Amino acid sequence: MQTLTQLILTGLQIGALYVIFSLGLNLIFGVMKIVNFAHGQFFTLTALLIAVLYPYFAGHGFSHVMAFCLAISAGILASLVLGYLLYQFGFRFFQRDLAGSFILSVGFVLFIEGLLLHYFGGAVKSVPYFVEGSVSILNVNVTYQRLILIFVALVFTALLYWVLGHTKTGKAMRAVSIDHEAAMIQGIPYKKIALTGFLIATFLGALAGAVMAPLAMVSPTVGADYLVKGFIAVILGGLGSVPGAIIGSLFIGFIESFGGFYFDPSFANIAIFVLVMIALMVRPNGLMGNG
């Protein structure tokens, strides 16, 4: 029973990270109908800046919490600036163009990854826990850091649901995702909504990097693995479907947790691909259909 509880909690923690990551991917696809492979660079840039800036601020007399908050704020802000630049100088010219946006985003990935390797180096970096210690849940010790990750995923998923369902901007995003031409006829400023959706998605990618940084080794290529799993979650759940992204992310989290424990991590990855292929053969548009 203790092992089962441990595996469930681990699956929730892994799935929570993919939820934050895949919600951003889904939002971009829903609003702009593009596939953004550069989404992982927001994740990577934020994690790298936290790994570099935290010791800098801590070494200049700031408290642990303040140094962390400053590093996280700087990392997310830098990613938002990067996202704005990528949109203005690239993606806004390829909206609703799957092939063009695919080629563009792959080019951005190679370009940004080269810059990150040049300025941050290839060595892995570590980030200390934001909160030390653990708590016992059903006789299983869970670190506060992992609980923070799950809490952040719950809060921002609920917040995104509220924004999409109860705000003027969120309703405009939903209208654009259904039929952007009809939305424009109704007076919805499509370009403004597309930029807003892209920046919210960028923030979610950066947030995922911030909560992951203390839990894994950080390197200029760390976003690549999460990007692949995030896309699998989105495709499994259904492109453009927010509930689908959540279900797909939790599915991958539990497969990684149980498969990694009973077999090994490589088997878990193979199992994910096999199960996803089977699921898509039964439901080609994903478990929840296209949103």
Structure description:
- The chain has one domain: ABC transporter involved in vitamin B12 uptake, BtuC.
- The two termini are 38 Å apart.
- The mean pLDDT is 89.
- It has 291 residues and is mainly α.
- Helix 1 crosses helix 6.
- A hairpin with a 2-residue loop joins strand 1 and strand 2.
Characterize this entry briefly.
The chain is an all-alpha fold and 291 residues long. It has helices spanning 2-32, 39-59, 64-89, 98-120, 144-166, 168-178, 180-185, 190-212, 222-237, 242-262, 265-282, and strands at residues 134-137, 140-143.
- The rounded Rg comes to 19 Å
Low-confidence stretches: none
Can you tell me the CATH architecture?
Orthogonal Bundle
Annotated CATH topology: ABC transporter involved in vitamin B12 uptake, BtuC
CATH class term: Mainly Alpha
Domain unit count: 1
Indicate the proportion of strand residues: under 5%
Largest sheet descriptor: 2 strands, antiparallel
Q: Structural class from helices and strands?
A: mainly alpha
Keywords: Amino-acid transport, Cell membrane, Membrane, Transmembrane, Transmembrane helix, Transport
Organism: Orrella marina
Family: Belongs to the binding-protein-dependent transport system permease family. LivHM subfamily.
Membrane topology: Multi-pass membrane protein
